[in-house]
Design goal:
With 494 residues, this protein is mainly alpha-helical. 64% of the residues lie in helices and 3% in strands. It folds into two domains: 148 residues, no CATH class; 326 residues, Neurolysin, domain 3, CATH 1.10.1370. A three-stranded mixed sheet has the order 1-3-2, with helices on both faces. Helix 1 packs antiparallel against helix 2, helix 6 packs across helix 7 and helix 12 packs across helix 13. 38% of the residues are buried.
Length: 494
């Protein structure tokens, strides 16, 4: 049967992606600096294997031979998602795909040096070549799909997103945040919260592991390592989480690992029945980010869980109880203050960072903005939205890895994820009556079980709005995020 053959070939494709994920993790963690050229060859070879798979599909006309009338509803959807992937490889030449992979590795390597030295010029040349190729790719896809070039890139990360809707959403959120910020700042005015003790790198690591186990992370199928930029990679049964440490910020590692644990739990909770099939993947990066931000913002930075963090520090890490308090932990970790760095930003300012990046990458792709002017463009736009002047490239256009790895269209998923997370949290509070008490006690199993049942186990069956309608009773509604910000930072309720 042609459909069975397609499923088998797609499993091969998926396993190659798993290998690529582990090679990418190694490249960001332990790979020797001078091994990069060899790694390029290895990854290009993986693309040869992928190309062979899709050539076999094309040669045997497998998609044409499938009788969809004989497929179940889920198999039909799986088939359509497979075809979307095939159409991409059929539209973009194998040479272009391999060239993009090569340039991404080269550019990412140059970015690491440029970031360390805070000098955009060290990566400008390779980024320009990469962006030129991405623009060429998006133009091809735009003509085939009859969509905006930028929308074609968005759909690679989330098939639910379109730029016209994002402009509307971000306009509303930017307006809301700028209206609420004076009230929030007034609330925190003249309040200097400082910890009387600090957490060493080992303390942060141990605290993180305790909470990862509380959340249900399976360490027999995953591990933690250091990297320049925190991320979650690997494969479903081999999750690789990375973090960074900053002893000047006692909770930097903890918060980063809680975020990445949210990603990991999603991966570990995906439907095993559909493993290595399109339906077995996460339902897009917005939903993925919703799970990481649910853990990081809705749970771990809540007032109620701050009490359990305090108990853990005293009882498990032997911290002096007189030097710590749950209220200080809560207020320090939810301090609203302008920040140059996205990943270190509070959740009130965070959407502004995303809107800033969305506006820039839209201009680069849709308006062919000259990439050589990126630092100036970044600094001008950042001043407009954040009222902060950038003094060096490291705090500006070099702070994120995404563009230098070729990921244009990813950034919006962070904020859409935050909005989804707030909506899910409101629903869970209704479904689990003792929600706050569970957080106080560090009993997170019931909450995670709800997420696994309603989100993780669904894989890619639903787009964002159908899934939210199924789980919360309505499509994406920004009021839940707005209510969350008001309740936490103005009314002091959560």
């Amino acid at each position: 049967m042609s459909y069975v053959k397609l499923k088998n070939l797609y499993e091969e494709y998926s396993l190659i992606n798993d290998i690529n994920g582990l090679l990418s993790w190694d490249m960001a963690t332990y790979m020797p600096v001078k091994s990069r050229k060899q790694r390029v060859k290895q990854i290009k070879k993986l693309y040869d294997f992928k190309d062979n798979i899709f050539n076999e599909i094309k040669k045997n006309e497998l998609f044409k031979k499938v009788d969809k009338s004989k497929l179940s509803k889920l198999d039909k959807l799986n088939f359509e998602l497979m075809k979307d992937k095939f159409d991409y490889f059929n539209s973009i030449s194998a040479e272009m795909i391999k060239k993009k992979a090569e340039l991404s590795i080269e550019c990412e390597g140059n970015w690491r040096e440029a970031k360390e030295k805070s000098n955009f010029n060290l990566v400008k040349g390779s980024l320009k070549k990469l962006v030129n190729l991405i623009q060429e790719e998006s133009e091809i896809l735009s003509q085939i799909k009859n969509k905006k070039k930028y929308d074609c890139l968005l759909s690679k990360y989330d098939r639910s997103l379109e730029s016209k809707n994002l402009f509307k959403i971000f306009y509303r959120i930017e307006k809301f945040i700028k209206k609420k910020l004076p009230l929030i700042e007034k609330k925190q005015m003249n309040k200097d919260y400082q910890l009387k003790d600090f957490l060493t790198e080992n303390d942060q690591f141990e605290l993180s592991k305790i909470f990862m186990m509380k959340l249900g992370f399976d360490f027999s199928k995953g591990r933690i390592d250091k990297s320049l930029h925190p991320f979650c990679g690997g494969s479903t049964d081999d999750i690789r989480i990375t973090t960074r440490f900053n002893e000047e910020d006692s909770f930097s590692c903890f918060d980063a690992l809680m975020h990445e644990t949210g990603h990991a739990l999603y991966e570990q909770g995906l439907p095993s029945k559909w493993a290595h099939q399109p339906l077995g993947y996460a339902g897009g990066m917005s939903l993925h980010e919703s799970q990481s931000l649910f853990i990081e913002m809705q749970i771990v930075k809540s007032r109620h869980l701050s009490n359990f963090i305090y108990k853990t520090l005293v009882n498990k890490l032997n911290k002096n109880s007189k030097l710590w308090s749950s209220e200080e932990i809560y207020k320090i970790r939810n301090l609203v203050k302008k920040n140059y760095i996205r990943v270190d930003s509070d959740e009130v300012h965070y959407p502004l960072h995303i809107i800033h990046r969305f506006n820039i990458e839209y201009k680069i792709i849709e308006e062919s903005e000259n990439i050589e002017n990126l630092p100036d463009l970044w600094n001008q736009e950042f001043l407009k939205i954040m009222n902060l002047e950038i003094t060096d490239d490291s705090n500006g256009c070099l702070q994120d890895i995404h563009w230098y790895g070729g990921d244009f269209g990813y950034f919006p998923t962070y904020s859409i994820g935050a909005f989804i997370a707030a909506q899910l949290a409101a629903k869970i509070r209704k479904d689990i009556s003792n929600y706050d008490t569970l957080l106080e006690d560090g009993n997170l199993k019931g909450i995670i079980k709800w997420l696994k049942s309603n989100i993780h186990s669904q894989g890619s069956i639903h787009k964002i709005n159908p899934l939210l309608e199924l789980t919360t009773g309505e499509a994406l509604n920004l009021k839940y995020f707005e209510n969350h910000i008001t309740d936490r930072y103005i009314n002091n309720l959560v």
